[in-house]
Amino acid sequence: MPRTAMALDVGGTKLAAAVIGDDGALLSRRQVSTPAREGLPALEDAVLRVVAGAVEDAGRRPDAVGIGSAGPIDPSAGTVSPVNIPAWRGFPIVGLLERALPGRPVRLAGDGHCMALGEYWRGHQTSRALLGMVVSTGVGGGLVLDGQIQAGPTGNAGHIGHMVIDPRGPACPCGGRGCVEMFASGPSMLRWAHAHGWCGSDAGTDTRALADCARAGDPIARQAFDRAADAIALAVLCAAALADLDDVVIGGGVATGAHDLLLARIRDEVRRLAGPEFIRRVRIEPSALGGDAGLLGAAALALNPAAA
Ligand SMILES: [Zn+2]
């Protein structure tokens, strides 16, 4: 019988769980909104319900468990402290899943790592060096070299959103300055657009409205996407120079809704600025898996411990 994994994707806005076969097939999938502003009992209950629901729908207990979580995380301690879930600071999520599915090994990685692993496993298995980028509320990522996610000694390698691309740029909540995230995350793009006179979407939280205005020819909206694309291109150039990348796969909610506004400009900037042929050759592609990349990567983590 083929092996299956319970994949859990923990984010500040949603919790998703799926039972996934070793061929990548989703046997079940459940999703709930993260009760991010509530206390521990509500959060634990939401995780246990979404996991139990996915097991029930699949009709079988999975053989292994993989968790991809928003960071910071501590894989060696099995704990997570997602920035957007204040009640979870050093929360032992691995222990929670061990109790929910006794006897099953549980593995934990960052959400950016899982996205990159998912893209490698389901879309780019011949890639020798793949960078996955999640462009969303923040900018994250993961680097897969020769089939293995590169986590680094503290589990934080691949944090491409905090590469500094402008030393005189805006201060970043991470403590740095001029990070990619300050140009290319959804909130950063909206903040810049509002500060420069864009008056769409009063709530200021909707990059889809910004994208629609850019497509309609609004110069400020267009410029917000160009700045984001240029920042991503600089990060890609540095990463490609460092890691001899075959592929850069760009996903996440903001990018997925605006590939038409971002990808061509990113590719053009990389070609314009790159010197050596090994950098120029990097392929820059949209995510093929969309919102399920993190779940598939968590399954890959569970079913192939050699990947992490
Ligand atoms: Zn930063």
TrEMBL record:
Coiled coil: none annotated. PROSITE patterns: ROK (PS01125). This is ROK family protein. Belongs to the ROK (NagC/XylR) family. It comes from the Bacteria.
